[in-house]
Amino acid sequence: ASFSGLGVQRTPEEAPRSWMLAFASDASPLLSAPLEGASLEVRVDSGPIVSLAFAGGLGRPEWFETTPRRFAVRARDEFGNTAFSYTDTVRARAEGASFTAGAEERVLVGGETLFDDLLLSSPASSVDVSFCTGLACTVSLETGPITVLPIGALILGTQPGDGFAGEPLAVQPVASIVGTDIFGVFVEAWVVGRPAGTLLGTTDVLTQGGAAAFTDLRLDLAGEHTI
């Protein structure tokens, strides 16, 4: 029996990328039992890259801040296989803002690459970040650009409590970012209006999981203040 046109569309996600190809005969009315099967091992590598997939980062939609952004990108062939066999260069592009730091080009390793030091300028509105590869950057993200959003609203989870001049407030405020999964944004506290006291302690706090918890805020002037 001669076969022609046999092909495999899917490759294993883990190495080694090989399949066992088996052959067997159906039971024949002239035979008391079917012929025993035969098999051989074939190696199947991924085909040429036809699309890029966003493989994770620090949330989607993303957000702006002063900490480098992380974008993981995976290359795929026409059947959805991870393109292990190719080491193309992937380029990052931004519309509506610009990259102010970081490597805008990365080489695929095992079909994937990680942009972990890109820094975006802060925009007035959302920005689209895309990735491409191939000659003249003809292969891009299959789902379209990743939309990067500005920081959402800020609310107080706990109101600051009363205290004495020069001593920490009885209840320290916790400020939360609303609408996005924020990590690594500084939240600043200050006094507005009169009396014009000075807010002491750690007034710039880095968010953890979207919330900034102040621990030692205090005022040097007695009176009613707005923080």
Which helices and strands, and how do they pair?
Layout: E1 18-23, E2 38-43, E3 51-57, E4 62-63, E5 69-76, E6 89-95, E7 99-101, E8 105-107, E9 112-120, E10 127-133, E11 139-140, E12 146-149, E13 154-158, E14 174-177, E15 186-188, E16 199-200, E17 204-206, E18 211-213, E19 218-219
Parallel strand pairs: 4-12
Antiparallel strand pairs: 1-2, 3-5, 5-9, 6-8, 6-10, 7-9, 10-11, 10-12, 13-14, 14-18, 15-17, 16-19
How would you characterize this protein structure?
With 227 residues, the chain is mainly β. It folds into two domains: 51-149, Sandwich (Immunoglobulin-like); 152-227. Helices cover 0% and strands 38% of the residues. It has no helices and 19 strands. It has strands spanning 18-23, 38-43, 51-57, 62-63, 69-76, 89-95, 99-101, 105-107, 112-120, 127-133, 139-140, 146-149, 154-158, 174-177, 186-188, 199-200, 204-206, 211-213, 218-219. The strands form six sheets. Strands 4, 6, 8, 10, 11 and 12 form a six-stranded mixed sheet that branches. It has a four-stranded antiparallel sheet with strand order 3-5-9-7, with no helix packed on it.
Tell me about the largest β-sheet. Answer: 6 strands, mixed
Number of domains: 2
What fraction, in percent, of the residue positions are helical? under 10%
User: Which blocks of ≥5 consecutive residues have pLDDT under 50?
Assistant: 58-64
- Enumerate how many helices there are, as a single number: 0
